[in-house]
Amino acid sequence: MQLTTETFRDVIVAHAPEEMNHERAEPFVEFVTRLDPRNVVMDLDGTEILDSGGLESLLVAQRRLREDGGELKISTNNSTNRKILEITRLDDVFEVYASVIEAVKSYS
What we know:
Layout: E1 4-8, E2 11-15, E3 19-20, H1 22-33, E4 39-43, E5 49-50, H2 52-67, E6 71-75, H3 79-87, E7 96-97, H4 100-105
Parallel strand pairs: 2-4, 3-5, 4-6, 6-7
Antiparallel strand pairs: 1-2
């Protein structure tokens, strides 16, 4: 899996795929955990499908990044994805920001 990324100093912004599901979970985790630097903002604005497999992949990626001294934060202005994060209470697990700029700045 190859995601579009942007680098801002020591932070990488990765734009999540349109579908974050069980099929893409393992390749997603492998891609994200190979990023350097290890401070990652995952932009979910373009994600149309976010199921349990996608949510689990976010958790696994966060755990692995933390083991390597990094962090995974989420950026989304997509109301459906924000609601999914709220309902599953993952907004308590991840730092969730309304914009990529806010998420990147939070690393300062």
